[in-house]
Write a structure and sequence with these properties.
The protein is built from 14 helices and 22 strands. It is an alpha+beta fold.
């Protein structure tokens, strides 16, 4: 069959890499893709928000399945558009993708269906927001309501910082229209985990556990990013925590979305905070996490394509996913200045050397070709991912590969996976 993957980041390179291994695939396309996906698929000069052009391509080229990577086309309704034209597509419809596109919606849903989460308020004006900040105390979390590429979250340590974040977001300066409404939450203490599951709106098939590293600097310091690295499995997700996450977070959320007339099909990502055997939900995403997708797909033993097709067909009842016992670690190498304004166009050295290392795969995220050379073209440039018998050996392999790669101003966290070892 012919498959189209939509997106051009590290998550999409990982999806293309995994899908390309399936014997069911005859031809693979990626729109717009990147230099990494170009080695496995035919890249298309189509952007993720050009829905009509993507539809036209899929119809003309007899695409059997489209797989949507990023949140933007989902929130624009690409699934509705493709389905209404008789095409199979993996991802939630627009009225279900709102679970990520509006943090206010997802918080209200959690409250209504008793999904454990932090106390919160939703605000469109500064005055009431300030009053909530004063009542709740510090530190406090300020979130842009809409899509902000994983960066619309400020953990404020002072009142001035919190009020400043609210004013920035409501003024439309910091995150554009994403911040025209803000969600303010109590600050939760504990250890974060990423819990992903595939669902057809009724049946839920959990993926392996993972942990993301959002802050830009070692020790979880500095501003939040789209993710500086991830590993799987995450020891914080014990069998007991797994059961709680399924029973108290995933099940009521999927059932609640169905009750609301918004049946959720695709992959649902729950960001969890775990403390003292209890779970609270930080956020939901309507797609594979990036960078969690990279180590998860490295560990997945099963063919991914039948799983994606089962969701598109609306029946996951017989689907089982097998996993390698090994651990996987992804270290994100970022451009100078990220997550703020960053440099582009720096030549990347050492990719071939890193690619020759055993059990290592370098996923391209923000790269481009310039006169045949691979150069930086985004904030998160590469996701260097390694498989190992233990988290410790996967970490060593990943950082060995990272050490082989360089460009001007490259930076990365040096403590990805440390929490797993500490446990």
């Amino acid at each position: 069959m012919k498959i189209l993957v939509i997106g051009g980041g590290g998550r999409e390179h990982a999806l293309v890499w995994k899908i390309a291994q399936s014997p069911l695939v005859e031809k693979l396309y990626c729109a717009p893709g990147n230099p990494g996906t170009a080695e496995l698929a035919e890249n298309l000069p189509l952007q993720v928000d050009e829905l009509d052009k993507l539809l036209e391509f899929a119809l003309k080229n007899d695409i059997a399945l489209t797989v949507v990577g990023p949140e933007q086309p989902l929130s624009l309704g690409i699934v509705d558009l493709f389905e209404s034209n008789g095409l199979k597509i993996f991802g939630p419809r627009k009225n279900a993708a709102i679970i990520e596109a509006s943090k206010a919606f997802s918080k209200d849903l959690m409250l209504k269906y008793n999904v454990p989460t932090a106390a919160y308020g939703v605000f469109t004006e500064v005055g009431p927001a300030e009053a909530f900040i004063d009542r709740t105390g510090l530190p406090i979390v300020v979130k842009a309501d809409g899509l902000a590429a994983g960066k619309g979250v400020i953990i404020a340590q002072t009142r001035d910082e919190a009020v400043g974040a609210v004013k920035d977001m409501l003024g439309g300066n910091a995150f554009g229209s994403a911040g025209s409404r803000v969600v303010i939450e109590e600050f939760l203490v504990g250890e974060e985990a990423s819990f992903l599951a595939i669902t057809d709106g009724k049946h839920i098939v959990p993926l392996a556990s993972a942990q993301d590293h959002k802050a830009v600097f070692d020790g979880d310091l500095g501003p939040n990013t789209g993710g500086m690295g991830a590993y799987s499995p995450a020891p914080v997700v014990t069998p007991e925590i797994h059961e709680i996450a399924m029973a108290e977070v995933l099940r009521p959320t999927i059932d609640g979305m169905a009750t609301e007339g918004r049946p959720y099909c695709g992959v649902l990502y729950a960001g969890l905070m775990v403390k003292d055997g209890q779970v609270k939900t930080l956020e939901f995403n309507a797609r594979f996490g990036d960078p969690e997708c990279q180590p998860l797909l490295m560990r997945m033993k099963s063919d991914l394509v039948p799983v994606l097709m089962a969701v598109a067909d609306g029946d996951l009842s017989t689907t089982v996913i097998e996993w390698h016992d090994k651990a996987a670690v992804c270290v994100v190498m970022a451009a100078e200045g990220y997550p703020g304004s960053y440099r582009k166009g720096d030549a990347i050295e050492g990719l071939e050397e890193a690619a020759q290392l055993e059990d290592v795969h370098v996923f391209h995220a923000g790269t481009a070709l310039d006169s045949g050379r691979c150069v930086t073209n985004g904030g998160r440039v590469l996701g260097v991912t390694a498989l190992g018998e233990t988290v410790q050996t996967a970490i060593l392999k990943a950082y060995q590969a990272v050490g082989a790669i360089s460009w001007k101003g490259a930076h990365y966290r040096k403590d990805i996976g440390k929490k797993a070892i500490d446990r």
